[in-house]
Amino acid sequence: MSKRAREQSRIQRRLAEVQRQQRAKQRRQRIIWSGVGVAIAAVVAVILVLTLPGSSGGGTSNEVIPPAVAAGSPVAQAPALVVPNTTGISGVVAYDTTGWPQNSSNGPANRALPHSHVPGPVTYSVTPPVGGDHNGNWMNCGVYAQPVPTERAVHNLEHGAVWITYQPSLPRAEVNQLRSFFSSQSVVAGGSRYIDLTPFPGLPSPIVASSWGFQLHLTSPTDPRLQQFVNKFRYSQKYSPEFPAPCTGGLGTPLQK
Question: Measured between alpha carbons, how far is 229 from 162 in angstroms, rounded to an integer?
Fold first, then answer.
């Protein structure tokens, strides 16, 4: 082989080696960027899970809102009678519950909150309701990310639940604080905390805690009176009209229970 031929062969081998190295570098870069893409996708997925309505770090995406009650002409509740607050909790508004619970006697019997089962809608005189006629099927207690039928939530109040409602516009951070509050409460019976936590359009204050016959308006989820309210009225033999009726075995699937 001539000197010129040997030089051309050497150049071709060098070019082939350079091309092989470039292909190897490109493969490594594709692997690296593929891994980066997977990592970015995972981060985005986590962010979406944490920011979607109904997500709360411990909840589930399988929320089922209890069905609305049957259509029909609403039953109009007579104005609920306010009575003196003897609970010891500042700011609580108390309503006449005489006879229901049976041992209650805080006002005239003919002005007490009614408690019949009705199939259709009810127009309540208090927002959100603190009792009154309601649907015969209660809902499973827990956290719901969407509004629930009031006629079913009132049935839960009758069983001894505390209903914590908040304005839909409440900042996400404060909603999460309410959900953390919910999670911190003990399970009292039947695997339930006997608390409902839901948004409620048209609230008169950012947060409202209600039980059968009692209500507390709040502006902050960290107000210590919220815990006092839960401690006094939740699953209470004194204040729950149908104690110890269940808060499970009803309709709907909450995000947390």
Answer: 8
